[in-house]
Amino acid sequence: MTDRKKLIIAIDGPSGAGKSTASRLLAERLGYLNIDTGAMYRSVALAAHRAGIDPENHTALEELCDRIDIRLEVDPRGGLRVMLDGEDVSMAIRTPEISRLTPLVAAVPAVRRAMVTLQRRLGRDGGVVLEGRDIGTVVFPDADLKVFLHASARERGRRRWLELKEKGVEVDLEQTVREVVERDRVDMEREEAPLVRPDGAVDIDSGMLDVDQVVRLLLDEVDRTLRKRRDTGAARKG
Ligand code: DC
User: Fold this and answer.
1) How far is the CA of 187 from the centre of ligand 1 (A)?
2) Domain topology for 8-226
């Protein structure tokens, strides 16, 4: 199916709703490229941290974005490999320190401009699942399929708490839920590309679903999108 190769799929939603895993599995099922835009912002934060750039220094961040090379590669062992200037930084971008720094860097307009440009370049030919906070609103408002994947803050907090517990990190459940609520607030209230449900997005509440069920719903939506495209005769040449 050639046209199946061509869709641009935008998946947005708050942190902890299961976007990353669902997007990766969906991309694998479709043979698409999975573009984890959060990993791109994390890479900028890591590069800024290493270069000793203060997140308040917008000019230095803009120059940094001009000179760094961020690539997303398929890891033969599964998943996605994030490359910063030729170095595999997939792990280094997930430390608590970089997680704290990333929202500050991601709020800088010049950084967003640079990342949005890169994301559009990577996605323009289709065959991509882009995942983030502003894909269906800013990066590809005309995406073939837009999804808003969410779950209640309590459920997302509970999952995060379980995840930490499994790693042997004992934290307070209520505190974890409060942190999720606070992250949502920052994501939704920021001036640059706030997290909102994109117009025309399909809503999926992952609260009561496991990841396989979410992927199944996403595949149903892909089929529906392809059928609609065929019915309206709007299929682009494959
Ligand atoms: O999804 P994540 O936790 O890896 O995202 C890391 C940070 O980047 C988080 O603070 C939200 C931000 N982000 C963003 O501002 N825009 C995106 N398109 C994706 C992530």
Assistant:
1) 8
2) Rossmann fold (3.40.50)
